[in-house]
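Fold this: 2-polyprenyl-6-methoxyphenol hydroxylase-like FAD-dependent oxidoreductase
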Amino acid sequence: METFDVVIAGCGPTGAMLAAELRLHDVRVLVLDKETEPASIVRIVGLHIRSLEVLAMRGLLDRMLERGRKRPAGGFFAAINKPAPADLDSAHAYLLGIPQPVVVQLLEEHAIHRGAQVRRGCAVVGFEQDDKGVTAELDNGEQLRSRYLVGCDGSRSTVRKLLGVGFPGEPSRNETLMGELELDVPQDELAAKVTEVRETYKTFSITPFADGIYRVVIPVAGVSERAEPTLDDFRQHLRTIAGTDFGAHSPHWLSRFGDATRLAERYRIRRVLLAGDAAHIHPPTGGQGLNLGIQDAFNLGWKLAAEIRGWAPETLLDTYEAERHPVAEDVLDNTRAQMELLSTDPGPQAVRRLLTELMDFVEVNRHLIEKITAIDIRYDFGEGPDLQGRRLRDLKTKHGNLYDLLHHGRGLLLDRTEHLTTDGWSDRVDHLTDPTVAVDAPALLLRPDGHIAWLGTNQQDLTTQLTRWFGAGVTG
């Protein structure tokens, strides 16, 4: 029986990101995916500010930028078209539009380059866990042994169901059709009709994708029982909403998704964990889903690696659920609110008009944009300054950009005092002394995910926090 430190079910963005994070710490990782080939549907997704920062911290952002297109960071909350404030606290204050298959490809290639194994065409169908590990059964009858199993296997997660974790929430009430088709209609006529329809249906869109090919997004009342839509479905709903089907023909791909909103009751039971869509689903309004999963993996990776490498403090792995579950709760709530604001009913439309006025106040607009882009997150590390628990933006240091110094997934003491020490933790935490760096604190201790674990000047307090997040120091 083959053995690994971690088996990951699902090689989407979350699973691939988690595998790469674990490999930074020499964890033996196997990623399984039931599909024989990566998804070929070229759905454009938006990488928000925090995800761009995460990728920069691991040296992946430039590769993404080569394959994507920068767009303004504003206008995403309920499709209310308000520009982002010019002074958002990030060196990456934009949205990157990029095909989802490209994101998966680049993350998977990165994980494999780091040493992860990826096997396609096989899936976990059963498992048993004990005090030392997990025995997983695959659909081909093979068994694998690992110390931990992580379900990154999507909204219909087999791992979550086998684990018996509840997935409460609301089922789909409405759905959206999305696809790429060819249309036979003059461009000016098409643009005028789309503008007219969007006065009522804010999520309706038809955008050119390639020569003669358009990406079509149609909101639909109710939920179809059919798994996949047909060209006739698209034509029918276009006529219902726009009064014309625009001569739609020759579909390249067609899909539908609902607005179900659900959150797993737990993210971990002993040695089995959940991340990404296996732990939470919600409507795509605001474009937060893929980002939420990548950030789950970024939070979990170094903690699970620490557990496997043997230096994790006793409760470190528990902080994954404690930190990420409330974040998902907030995302589900803001998508619920956005869906209400997209309703065509008079009441929600009145609230939408009022909120549109309120967003002219800079701080209201800032609050909603920071929420969507996940740069407002403050993990609860207990009492302390407001910066504690927040992520730190990229900064210039005498050794280069701060995020470039985090490529290896280690902690970092950013020390302007020049008298602090990380002796005993140098195998886990780097120490950068730089009195010139522009940060509003004498010294900061960063976790591998870039969140501020401590700030101050007292060595004893620093030692306490080093032990809290990075385990016991090594003497000698």
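The chain is about 30% helix and 25% strand. The domain at 396-470 is CATH 3.40.30.120 (Glutaredoxin).
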